[in-house]
């Protein structure tokens, strides 16, 4: 019998998921189609699973977007090689290390190094950056630099990085190929399996609202996240960029994105799920909604101001102000929903946790 107030079929499906039974693709499609009070019930269920499995604390990851050069031509992204309007930048090694030190100074224990696929940053250079950040700051390092070889993943791990974010973007082979010309879903999934095999904490995820995407594709996205046993999940709305071939496409739907996030929490239980910047870009309250529907991570942007606006993956990214200001604001709005920032390492539960300090 259901404890949730929702239509019978929705309540039954939500309860099926909450009690740990596997949802079929058809079940997920139905849940992605619910609305009104059924949606409220779904989000509340995700919120209580989040509380039960990963607690009320919100983990921070400081992100540094160190290069907007990209050799890929993804239809959705402003950094695509086919966008001549974008002024390109690369942060040099000392600048990256200096910025990582600011992450450390703000007591944020982990740094995410993100960029386009930029072969200027060879294996040797990336390894040196990783080693220096480890030696000079002790920060936990997450990489998000696209598809690389098995040997690269091995070398980066050996150098001291141990988390990798590589969103699968969409679990539809055809849509993937259409959206990422010259790339294959199979190769991206291979990278994810290598990462898991090498012991990386592995993040994947998708975009919600890509043109041509269906609810069936979204169900496949969620089942893929579960099947991979991913440790981190990035789920954000697609945002149309004016200088890309998808300029005239509609943006992803916020409610559908939040439902995806809620289902991801219910299905995967103890993963780390950020309230993505893309959500906050389309809806000022988007990140707060996400944090109340299963999310438990926020990623303040530490990229130096002069580069921030050039990291133009999608338009309208909103995190203005210094990292200190962003974190102070975050602390206030988290307090408004009874949550606290935790300056801990934020490994997926069951993995090593360095004694975190609450504030
Ligand atoms: N080059 C790396 C990392 C940088 S892109 C990679 O592609 O993996 C980081 C993420 O930005 C991508 O995973 C994608 O999901 C997201 N992204 C790109 N364009 C976007 C858009 N128009 N709207 C929303 N998210 C977008
Ligand atoms: Fe490059 Fe990543 Fe943008 Fe694709 S999504 S164009 S790989 S930065």
Textual characterization of the structure:
By secondary structure, the chain is an alpha/beta fold. Helix 5 (123-137) links the parallel strand 3 and strand 4. Helix 1 packs parallel to helix 3 (36-54). 43% of the residues lie in helices and 12% in strands. The strands form 2 sheets. It has a 6-stranded parallel beta sheet with strand order 2-3-4-5-6-7. The protein has a 3-stranded parallel beta sheet with strand order 8-1-9, covered by helices on one side. It has helices spanning 8-18, 25-32, 36-54, 93-105, 123-137, 150-159, 173-179, 185-197, 215-228, 254-268, 277-282, 286-291, 305-308, 323-335, and strands at residues 57-60, 62-67, 110-115, 140-144, 163-165, 201-208, 232-237, 297-298, 340-342. It has one domain (57-346): Alpha-Beta Barrel (TIM Barrel), CATH 3.20.20. It has 14 helices and 9 strands.
């Amino acid at each position: 019998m259901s404890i949730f107030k929702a239509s019978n079929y929705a309540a039954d499906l939500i309860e099926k998921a909450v009690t740990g039974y596997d949802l079929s693709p058809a079940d997920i499609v139905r849940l992605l189609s619910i609305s009104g009070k059924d949606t409220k019930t779904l989000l509340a269920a995700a919120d209580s699973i989040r509380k039960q499995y990963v607690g009320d604390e919100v983990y921070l990851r400081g992100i540094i977007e160190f290069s907007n050069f990209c050799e890929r031509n993804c239809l959705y992204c402003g950094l695509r090689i086919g966008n001549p309007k974008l002024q390109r930048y690369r942060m040099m090694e000392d600048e990256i290390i200096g910025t990582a030190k600011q992450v450390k100074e703000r007591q944020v224990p982990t740094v995410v190094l993100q960029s386009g696929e930029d072969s200027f940053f060879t294996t040797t250079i990336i390894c040196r950056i990783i080693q220096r950040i480890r030696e000079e700051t002790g920060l936990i390092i997450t990489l998000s630099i696209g598809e690389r070889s098995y040997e690269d993943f091995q070398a980066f791990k050996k150098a001291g990085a141990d988390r990798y974010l590589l969103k699968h973007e969409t679990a539809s082979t055809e849509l993937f190929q259409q959206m990422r010309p010259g790339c294959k879903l199979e190769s991206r999934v291979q990278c994810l399996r290598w990462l898991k095999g090498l012991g990386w904490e592995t993040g994947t995820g998708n975009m919600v609202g890509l043109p041509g995407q269906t609810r069936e594709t979204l169900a496949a996205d969620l089942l893929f996240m579960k099947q991979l046993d991913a440790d981190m999940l990035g789920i954000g709305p697609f945002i149309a960029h004016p200088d890309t071939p998808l300029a005239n496409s509609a943006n992803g739907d916020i409610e559908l994105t939040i439902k995806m996030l809620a289902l991801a929490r219910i299905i995967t239980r103890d993963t780390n799920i950020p309230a993505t910047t893309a959500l906050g870009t389309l809806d000022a309250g988007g990140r707060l909604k996400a944090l109340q529907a299963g999310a438990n991570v926020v990623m303040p942007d530490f990229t130096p101001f002069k580069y921030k606006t050039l990291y133009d993956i999608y338009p309208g990214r909103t995190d203005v102000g210094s990292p200190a200001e962003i974190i102070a604001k975050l602390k206030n709005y988290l307090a408004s929903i009874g949550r606290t920032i935790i300056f801990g390492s934020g490994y997926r539960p069951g993995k090593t946790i360095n004694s975190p300090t609450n504030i």
